[in-house]
TrEMBL record:
GO CC list: EMC complex
Protein name in UniProt: MPN domain-containing protein
InterPro entries, sorted: EMC8/9 (IPR005366), MPN (IPR037518)
A Pfam match: UPF0172
Length: 204
């Protein structure tokens, strides 16, 4: 079945980048929020909500975070449209089993859900540091998107709303340290003043 076009907008890309930059040696994960134009129309990935940075399983904290992120999406006029994950090793771009479970759960509420794994080897050099995954038919198994053109290349079903998002994200981390103002659900549990759902203070 044909998949729609997915376009990642600045707020979503920056937040994922900041999450990975703040916890470079820990696994991180979160969800993407967005909208879709009609049935099977373009999916605009507009925002990201960071969940955890020391997760190992589908824990109660993960469940609570997902529920709160879903409620936040609905009150903001969006849906949870995808999942993202960063691994401990920079050369690991595999979607973990817990990631497959979370992505499959998101898919029950949004048929065109997508998952992304952060590419740690690209994240600091200005390239698009996301590897997209799609589910295999009606299964809960997810595989990297393959074929030509490659993701984020001209003509691909995966695009950025502006080509300079990766290089801009690097500058915001290196020059302005915006990732230090970023917080996920784990951080919020330790300090309830951290607005992990919106993260307005870290946005350029």
């Amino acid at each position: 079945m044909s998949k729609p076009l997915y376009t990642i907008h600045p707020e979503a890309y920056y937040k994922v980048f900041f999450h990975a930059a703040k916890h470079p040696h820990q696994p991180v994960n979160g969800v993407f929020l967005g909208t879709q134009k009609g049935e099977k129309g373009e999916v605009s990935i507009l925002d990201a909500v960071p969940l955890l940075h020391h997760w190992t399983s589908l824990s109660p904290m993960m469940e609570i975070g997902l529920d709160l992120a879903t409620q936040h999406a609905e009150t903001s006029g969006m849906k949870v449209v995808g999942y993202y994950q960063g691994c401990e090793r920079i050369d690991d771009t595999s979607l973990a089993p817990v990631g497959e479970k979370v992505a499959s759960r998101i898919r029950t509420g949004f048929e065109d859900a997508v998952a992304f794994v952060i590419d740690g080897q690209k994240i600091g050099n200005g390239e698009v540091a996301l590897v997209p995954y799609h589910p295999l038919a009606a299964t809960t198994t997810w595989r990297p998107v393959s074929g030509e053109p490659s993701p984020f290349a001209p003509g691909s079903k995966f695009q950025l709303s502006a080509p300079n998002l990766p290089s801009e994200a690097v500058k915001y981390v290196q020059d302005q340290n915006l990732h230090f103002a970023f917080g996920d659900f784990d951080d919020h549990l330790e300090d309830v003043t951290i607005d992990w759902l919106r993260n307005r203070t870290c946005l350029p």
